[in-house]
Design goal:
428 residues, seven-stranded mixed beta sheet, alpha/beta, 19% strand, binds S-adenosylmethionine
């Protein structure tokens, strides 16, 4: 069952054509590769590849340097249990580096990119996202999270018609257990879209019935043996045909407008940097007439702009203003990432919202993760309030560092700052 007809160029929205080793946009003349078997549909595919390679290499070297720190601490361990914990954690970190090397090996195979570092800097990927952000979700999805996975499906299921042949897309799918579970209870195609290749490559492997080892590092291990556990991730069984993982940016979705019957956003809205209304207008654009949007998860916005930190009721009104009519909502207190190996877990009053598209609204402008002056190095760098603050702070810091001469005390440094009229006495 092909997925090509549903894929669009993330830069211009033209339907993508299938070519030997990937996809092609005839309008932009851009080739989009496949990573292992997964469409790699970022608007600047080469730069995104270089960027994820850098994040991959960074994650591996970070794991290895953390392992080294554990090993160096062993000489000072006062008791045998501490030695055991440090050794186990170091081994776990080293093993995880090996797993990352092997799972993400396809990143090294596709289209070599020149000047990687330079290109990575130009990237328009979500800037705050690390390779291992949200990685506990993988263990929840495919190892110990049966109850959480079942509860999530239970909340969403009432809004899905299992007998209709429909096309579903799960945005920000992560480890994609929900996409797999939804696909199992429906009859059409299901697409999972996420920007993180670790999740895509792993989910794709598990959906085929393969297993993958992946180390869990619980936040608050119950015992020393729980510090680093090599878990086996596996799906309950191979997925039926028609389940696809697409790698791309939710905010520049490589999807055909008006093509999806159901769009699901699980635990996504409040982690995006954009206002919820912007994503809702994009979703409106992707849905078929009368198509439905289902949102599930937390409503815990923490945007730098307070305007966008919506409450549940504001979110419902925003949906109405974005061309949706609310069909139903539910709330349920649920565990979240409650690992059996950890003393820490969240309980969340989770919300589920189901809306249908009742009007077409204008598509929002294409999202940019980085400002134009970073992407285009010949453009002037604007003097933002953040830069002004940083300038003053940097000058003060540099001056103070210059006063550290091995002889002055903190009090004497403060006196110099005061004498030079750089700070009032109280601040100094
Ligand atoms: C909180 S996690 C939720 C994952 C999954 N939906 C679940 O419930 O386990 C948010 C997910 O959104 C993805 N994500 C965040 N920003 C994205 C973007 N701009 N494009 C694509 N995926 C994005 C992250 O990679 C991550 O997998």
């Amino acid at each position: 069952m092909t997925v090509s007809g549903l894929l669009a160029c993330p830069t211009c929205d033209t339907q993508l054509g299938r070519v030997d080793d990937g996809y092609h946009c005839k309008t932009c003349r851009i080739d989009y590769p496949r990573l292992a078997d997964l469409p790699w549909l970022f608007s600047e595919p080469g730069s995104a590849l270089a960027d994820w390679r850098n994040r991959w290499q960074y994650a591996i070297s970070d794991l290895l340097s953390r392992a080294e720190a554990q090993r160096s601490a062993i000489v000072d361990a006062p008791i045998a249990e501490t030695t055991e914990r440090l050794t186990l954690t170091a081994e776990g970190l080293e093993t995880q580096a090996e797993h990352l090397r092997s799972i993400l090996a396809p990143l090294d195979v596709v289209q070599p990119v020149a000047k990687e570092t330079y290109l990575a800097l130009r990237s328009r990927l979500p800037t705050a996202m690390g390779l291992l952000s949200y990685s506990t979700n993988l263990h929840r999805d495919w190892c110990w999270g049966d109850e959480e996975n079942r509860l999530a499906l239970e909340q969403i299921r009432p809004f899905i018609d299992p007998d209709r042949d429909q096309t579903i897309v799960v945005l920000g799918a992560g480890g994609a257990r929900l996409a797999y579970d939804l696909h199992a209870i429906t009859t059409g195609k299901t697409l999972a879209l996420d920007a993180n290749p670790l999740y895509g490559l792993l989910a794709h492997r598990l959906w085929q019935g393969d297993e993958q080892k992946f180390v869990e590092f619980p936040l608050a291990p119950k015992t020393s043996a729980d510090c680093a556990i090599e878990q086996v991730l596996r799906a309950p069984g191979p997925a039926r045909e028609g389940l696809h993982y697409i790698l791309g940016d939710v905010l520049r979705p490589p999807l055909m407008a008006g093509s999806f019957d159901v769009i699901v956003t699980p635990w996504l809205l409040d982690v995006l940097p954009t206002p919820a209304g912007t994503l809702l207008r994009l979703i409106n654009h992707l849905l078929t007439d009368n198509g439905i949007w289902i949102n599930h998860g937390s409503v815990a916005f923490a945007n730098r702009n307070p305007l966008h930190n919506l409450t549940f009721t504001e979110l419902l009104k925003t949906a109405q203003a974005s061309g949706f009519e609310v069909d139903g909502t539910s709330e349920r207190r649920m565990p979240y990432l409650a690992s059996p190996h950890s003393r820490f877990a969240r309980q969340e009053l989770t919300t589920t919202i189901c809306c249908h598209k009742s009007a077409n609204v204008a598509r929002p402008d294409r999202h940019q993760h980085l400002p134009e002056w970073i992407v285009h190095p010949k453009k002037p760098v604007p003097v933002t309030p953040e830069f002004r603050t940083q300038l003053t702070t940097t000058r003060i810091n540099a001056h103070i560092m210059g006063l550290i001469d091995g002889a002055r005390s903190i009090r004497q440094i403060a006196e110099v700052l005061q004498t030079q009229r750089l700070m009032p006495a109280k601040d100094a």
